[in-house]
Design a protein that fits this description.
alpha+beta, SH3 type barrels, five-stranded antiparallel β-sheet, 13 helices
């Protein structure tokens, strides 16, 4: 059973997380990596599912059951734990071990029937198992709404100044990119929020030109180069031009030189302000 987490993530971090998934070599090899859906082409449902898997949030809550559980929760639990289970006179249930260790009510149902009278939590023995499972789905839906940033619905991010965004692009982006990079970029993404994620942290899956590459010099002086699929302090995995995978231990005498086409984006994220982000997005969306 996977443990549901409750991370707090910035939009740029979300984009980075999905990119990291694309950098790992899937079981199907290089072709499978190229078949992954880039973030810009994902539907909201696909993006939510990808984030759920990456963060280990567990199975998707049953939305219909959660809707049935809402009035039951409101009547029996909200006075103590708050209308959205964020806490009131009682603790928040979003980070409750009882909730996070449950998938579809198999643990919560018997727990709710018994209650925890010694801690002031009454038993709900008069509710049926199906009703308690609906309450459990309501709680899981609250966790989903907090934890799964991929499921967030953005109402409007076009709040910046397009003219200032154009100035930022000219000053910070044109040393690496040409005008062709931005030509018609506003029509290449399904929505403005996808465009914003796309320019802050471009997706790697399916675009080998954005892959991190490395040249490894062995202790005996021989070299090997290729696309990096995994790297740590202890070993590096490369795929060479022939498609062969090589796992190299980073032993004494082994030198690794890596080249990441998105290194400039990593540096940019560290200094990018909210105003700059909104201004650039407002400018890029005009380039149809």
């Amino acid at each position: 059973m996977r443990h549901r987490g409750v991370p707090v993530m910035l939009a740029a971090v979300f984009a980075f997380a999905i990119t990291v998934m694309g950098q790992e070599e899937p079981s199907g090899g290089q072709n499978a990596a190229q078949q992954q859906t880039p973030n810009k082409d994902m539907t909201p449902e696909q993006r939510a599912a990808a984030t759920r898997v990456f963060l280990g949030l567990g199975p998707e809550p049953d939305k219909a059951a959660a809707a049935r559980g809402t009035p039951l929760y409101t009547k029996n639990c909200a006075f103590c734990h708050g209308s959205q289970a964020r806490g009131a006179t009682g603790p928040s249930l979003i980070t409750s071990d009882e909730v996070l260790n449950d998938d579809h009510g198999e643990r919560l149902t018997p727990f709710l029937k018994k209650g925890r009278p010694e801690d002031g939590m009454p038993a709900f023995a008069t509710l049926s198992d199906s009703q308690l499972k609906d309450v459990a789905e309501f709680l899981h839906w609250q966790v989903e709404e907090v934890a799964n940033r991929g499921a967030y619905h953005v109402l409007n991010i076009l709040v910046g100044n397009a003219a200032k965004g154009q100035v930022y692009v000219a000053a910070h982006c044109m040393s690496c990119h040409s005008a062709a990079t931005f030509a018609h970029i506003g029509s290449k993404f399904r929505s403005a929020d996808m465009l914003q994620r796309g320019w802050i942290w471009p997706m790697r899956p399916g675009d080998i030109s954005l892959a991190t590459t490395a040249t490894v010099k062995m202790a005996d002086g021989t070299t090997m180069a290729g696309r990096v699929t995994q790297v740590s302090d202890f070993r590096i995995t490369l795929v060479d031009r022939a498609g062969q995978t090589h796992v190299i231990d980073r032993e004494p005498g082994v030198e690794v030189q890596m080249k990441d086409p998105l290194a400039a984006h990593q540096e940019m994220i560290m200094t990018l302000t909210n105003d700059d982000m909104h201004n650039v997005t407002a400018y890029l969306v005009t380039l149809k």
